[in-house]
From TrEMBL:
Catalytic activity: L-seryl-[protein] + ATP = O-phospho-L-seryl-[protein] + ADP + H(+); L-threonyl-[protein] + ATP = O-phospho-L-threonyl-[protein] + ADP + H(+)
Pfam families, per database record: KA1
Positions of the KA1 domain: 31-79
This enzyme's EC code(s): 2.7.11.1
Ranges in a coiled coil: none
A Gene Ontology molecular function term of the record: protein serine/threonine kinase activity
Group of enzyme by EC: transferase
Keywords: ATP-binding, Kinase, Nucleotide-binding, Serine/threonine-protein kinase, Transferase
Protein name as catalogued: non-specific serine/threonine protein kinase
InterPro entries, per database record: KA1/Ssp2_C, KA1_dom
């Protein structure tokens, strides 16, 4: 999941919106998210050049729910990469 920041942001926002997850943009690269007692952050981290990747951080809630949700979001992002190409 490497790509330009704007592309990564659009894919993450689309996935969160489709899943009805409350999203608050804290900075250009940090989102605070909430879904049924689960709170987590998504950080778009610079790798090199114009490439960025995402990192998840659980703040509160069930580990199991967090794992299921982050895997689902990651799958959404990767499947949208396949459809774009």
């Amino acid at each position: 999941m490497l790509g330009p920041l704007a592309e990564i942001q659009a894919k993450v926002e689309r996935s969160l919106k489709n899943r009805a997850i409350v999203l608050r943009k804290m900075t250009e690269v940090l989102y605070s998210c909430e879904d049924r007692g689960l709170r987590f952050e998504i950080l778009m981290e610079h790798v090199q050049g114009h490439l960025h990747t995402i990192k998840f951080k659980r703040l509160e809630g069930s580990w199991w729910a967090y794992k299921k949700l982050t895997v689902a979001i990651t799958d959404d992002i990767q499947s949208s990469e396949v459809m774009v190409r």
